[in-house]
Write a structure and sequence with these properties.
By secondary structure, the chain is mainly beta. The protein has a single domain, classed as Porin (Beta Barrel), CATH 2.40.160. It is built from two helices and 13 strands. The strands form two sheets. Strands 1-3-4-5-6-9-10-13 form an eight-stranded antiparallel barrel. It starts with a helix and ends with a helix.
């Protein structure tokens, strides 16, 4: 948490130095999670005759975001969102001829801080790239029972840091706000969870297998930023100064 505090302060310091050039825009976002094989999204576990696999097969994230435009080409962005990762898992025992598949959800909250750079593509179309960090919070463990087994996902930490990268395009309308489409990659610095998958024999003797999940994921981002008129904001500040 000390590291996240330092990062937050480092990002807020430039805001005071830009003074009246700063324009703040509020937005909302929805981000479906895209399963991607190359992100260590699947874990295979094995012990004696018991095998199991856990794989990220989707989920979704949503929340609000705040963009602070420092110049026409540079901005900072933060916000608060919830992420629900959906995992499918299998539990097999060859000797007992038992096999079952089920799903479990793991919920977290994210507080990201990113720096953005814009490239103008047209009169109102822009492309941007962003890189930054996220403070990730996990309120509880996750559990799912099946007929003869259980999966239990232990949170390794209630809070940890991750790195995020983003690439997207947006269209800025004259008065109806900004519409954004992009993709975000999010990877925690440490493993998301330690996971136990347990098979219960007929005498209820447990046979656990253990592994860890990285928690990395890719999302498709849909965002809407409410309209902010910089000229109107400047006029208000000018009138306020005259009154003073």
């Amino acid at each position: 948490m000390r590291a996240s505090t330092v990062i937050l302060l480092a990002c807020l310091i430039p805001l005071s130095s830009w003074g009246q050039a700063v324009v703040t825009t509020f937005g909302i976002q929805a981000k479906p999670v895209i399963p991607f094989t190359y992100l260590d999204s699947k874990v295979n576990l094995e012990r004696a005759n018991v095998t199991s696999s856990i794989e990220l097969d989707g989920g979704y994230a949503f929340g609000m975001c705040v963009r602070v435009a420092l110049t026409k080409t540079i901005a900072l962005e933060t916000g608060l969102g919830q992420i629900q990762r959906r995992y499918s898992f299998t539990l097999n025992n060859d000797t007992a001829n038992y096999s079952e598949t089920a799903k479990v959800r793991y919920i977290g909250y994210e507080l990201p801080i990113t720096a953005l750079i814009f490239i103008r593509l047209g009169e109102r179309a822009f492309m941007n790239a962003a890189l930054g960090f996220s403070a990730d919070f996990y309120p509880s463990d996750a559990q799912r029972d099946v007929e003869r087994g259980r999966i239990y996902m232990f949170r390794n930490r209630w809070a940890q840091l991750g790195v995020i990268g983003n690439l997207g395009v947006e269209y800025r309308t004259p008065k109806s706000g900004t519409f954004y489409l992009g993709a975000t990659f999010h990877r925690p610095f440490n493993a998301l969870s330690t996971v136990d998958v347990t098979y219960y024999g007929r005498n209820f003797f447990p046979y656990p297998v253990r592994g860890s999940l990285s928690g990395a994921y890719l999302t498709a981002d849909l965002r809407y930023y409410f309209h902010e008129d910089p000229a109107k904001r400047i006029r208000k500040k000018t009138k306020k100064k005259k009154k003073e």
